[in-house]
Amino acid sequence: MYKNLKISAVVPCYNEELGIAKVINSFPDFIDEIIVVDNNSTDKTSEIAKSLGAKVIFEKRQGYGRAYKTGFKAVKNDIIVTMDGDASYPATPIQQMLDRLVDEKLDFISAARMPLDWDKNKDNIKRFVGNKILSLMIMILFKQNIEDSQSGMWVFRSKVLDIVRIRSDGMPLSEELKIEAFCHPEIKSIEIPFQFKYQHREGSSKLNLWKDGFRNLLFLFQKKIFG
Question: What is the pTM of this model?
Fold first, then answer.
């Protein structure tokens, strides 16, 4: 519990046995429950998560968004914290995000990654450029200045899920949730930049940079047209 509010962490996982222990152990002690959504893993992700006290939920239907939506349904607490299961995000910003959420009476906060010393290899450059293109399109289509549209680290009140309409079962859920939260007049949302020390993900990446990048871009146009 933190400032009289109960906190749930939701972590989607697909074959993250190399990173999930690091993620779970990094959460602050005031997190009341950690929900790991095993998205049809074939490794020991769920066994490791259970051994560390996490609540494991199984979702056989593949998809980043599908896993998150299943995890969100299991939350009964006041506030939700999200983190990827590959240990690429540090947990250190969580307390500051919670402080601002509570003290400023906000509803949704997204962390914008500002790496201090990231490896400028070919894939990381692609990720950086792709993220900027998607963020620019969100500005053009939805009039929202979101610096890191693909960030998977959010802190928000559970009641937000009763207001937003998220339909993506895949990677676009990240940008869709932000668009819904930032555009809705009843949801007080901000983005907070953090200077993250770049952390290599544990295990192999499930992201296909070109394929998922185009899917995310196409989704933005579909979202604009169909809502």
Answer: 0.92
